[in-house]
Design goal:
- The protein is 73% helix and 0% strand.
- It folds into two domains: 1-58 and 99-151 and 295-371, no CATH class; 153-293, no CATH class.
- The chain is built from 19 helices and no strands.
- By secondary structure, the chain is mainly alpha-helical.
- The longest helix is centred in the C-terminal third of the chain and has 30 residues, at 261-290.
- The model has no long low-confidence stretch (mean pLDDT 94).
Length: 371
């Protein structure tokens, strides 16, 4: 349950996962979905690309969070762990809801307010993109009994069974079966894509990746199996991607005679699970080859990526509000949003967050040690 050497591959994958969320949100005003700020025209090509990456950017982030949860618990009692999770997650969540998210609300519903401060007088607060932190906090607390089990000798037989299963050629990939079955069943009762904790189809889907991240971190030889079968899992990902886009682009009238609407959605949920799971296990394997070297850069990036996540959507929404009004083509607006928001977020981090203990505290960072 403890690591003797730092897992630089997991650090890199955490950075990559959150940057993927940032790039996704940069594209949201232009893909035709219901984002806070929308361009009058949308790009079907952009939407076709983004729908693919939606299948694994957040699953990867939840799985990495699951591994981090085990490592955070490894040298703590459950009470110390609950305190650490509260400091790391709950305080940034409250701070974000009170100060980071309100600009999104104001620019999203600007015609509804005569003053920015009406957000506070009306108590129009929401979590918006910080739903991830909210869900992660409650998942972390709810999973404490399972972590205690994994931490005890009672889990030895279970972990050995899990390691033997993942040692099989298609063992890791076969874990997509419980993911798909559970997700498909819950989607019949909770069809929404809302990220609310009580939307149990969504919560189950992300919790599955979270728990598997915990199991991967606890079953040491499973990491060897991820590396061993990386090429096979990579091929399965490519094959799943072909199935995904084949089904995505097939005209509805072609399949209507053979599948009911419900059956069509079940098949869609299945191909989404196949793509999401196969990508994650393939990347975890290749990550041990590509990203395992010691790096001072990734340590700095890993420290900055949490404040970056908390800030990114608010900066995007504010800039997008003005950029979508420009009389230029979508690719230029997209590029302009990218080259303006990224440096602004970085500068806020460098000059307003990183040097100050109070700001580091409310953004969930470790405090600097004063000599």
């Amino acid at each position: 349950m403890t690591t003797k050497t730092r897992r630089y591959d997991l650090d890199w994958l955490r950075v990559i996962a959150i940057l993927a969320v940032y790039f996704h949100h940069v594209g949201m005003p232009f893909n035709g979905d219901d984002f806070h700020i929308m361009n009058t025209e949308s790009s079907k090509l952009l939407d076709d690309i983004m729908v693919f990456f939606e299948q694994f950017r957040l699953p990867l982030l939840f799985l990495i969070s699951g591994t981090g949860t085990v490592f955070a618990f490894s040298k703590r009692t459950w009470i110390q762990f609950a305190k650490e999770r509260s400091m790391r997650l709950l305080i940034p969540l409250f701070f974000g809801v009170l100060l980071i998210v309100p600009p999104q609300t104001f620019f999203d519903h600007q015609t509804a307010y005569t003053s920015y401060w009406e957000i506070y007088t009306n108590a129009d607060f929401g979590v918006n993109h910080l739903w991830f932190i909210d869900n992660l906090f409650w998942m972390s607390l709810g999973i404490i009994p399972f972590i205690l089990f994994l931490k005890s000798s009672k889990s030895d037989a279970f972990l050995k069974l899990f390691e033997r299963f993942t040692a099989k050629r298609f063992g890791l990939f076969a874990l997509v079966l419980p993911l798909s079955v559970g997700f498909i069943i819950l989607k019949q009762y909770y069809p929404s894509y809302d990220k609310d904790l009580f939307n149990f189809s969504s919560t189950f889907f992300y919790s599955f990746f979270f728990v598997l991240g915990m199991l991967f971190a606890s079953a040491e030889t499973t990491w060897m199996h991820l590396k061993q079968y990386r090429k096979q899992n990579g091929i399965l990902f490519l094959f799943s991607s072909l199935i995904f886009y084949a089904y995505y682009f097939v005209p509805g009238e072609w399949i209507a005679p053979y599948l009911t609407n419900t059956q069509g959605w079940i098949l869609w949920y299945l191909v989404c699970c196949l793509v999401g799971w196969s990508f994650v296990i393939a990347l975890l394997g290749y990550g041990q080859i590509w990203f395992q070297k010691k790096s001072s850069l990734v340590q700095k990036l890993n420290e900055a990526i949490y404040p970056f996540y908390i800030l990114h959507q608010t900066v995007i929404v504010v800039f997008a509000y003005y950029i979508v009004q420009l009389d230029i083509a979508i690719p230029w607006k997209l590029l302009l949003l990218l080259i303006t928001t990224f440096p602004v977020i970085v500068l806020i981090y460098i000059y307003l967050i990183y040097p100050f203990r109070a700001m580091r505290f409310v953004f969930g960072m470790k405090l600097l040690h004063v000599a």
